[in-house]
Amino acid sequence: MTAENYQKIWQTVLLIPAGKVASYGQVADLAGLPGRARLVGKALGYAPTELAVPWYRVLRSDRSLGFAPGSATALEQRQLLLAEGVVLKHNRVSKATLWQPDLAELLFKLQY
DNA sequence: ACCATGACGCTAC
DNA sequence: AGTAGCGCCATGG
Fold first, then answer.
1. Nearest nucleotide (C1') to the CA of residue A2?
2. What total number of domains does chain A contain?
3. Which residues of chain A have pLDDT under 50?
């Protein structure tokens, strides 16, 4: 069951389009796990590399990167986002880069 | 079983 | 812009 939750989370994150970002809480909600943002972070940490989950497109609800500024992971995330054309202002992404999925289409793709 | 620890988030100061 | 408290709960010691 927790394994299934991880699957739901990975699937949801895979739907985030390049150049867009979503928050941990948003992913949790869309994955059918409201209020469980922490689980999203855990799931991303455990994500199998073969799934190629775009973990770097997930950040905090205040639109700042999900890691301590200066940490190797934060630098990597910044680089990957910039490579997709995401605009970063002082360690924050602009509101325009937030992912706003069409719910009907999302439900269709997630196949619940 | 108990306790501490997080890739979090929201409300209230 | 910051801090504090609380809710959340899987994982590991």
1. C10
2. 1
3. none
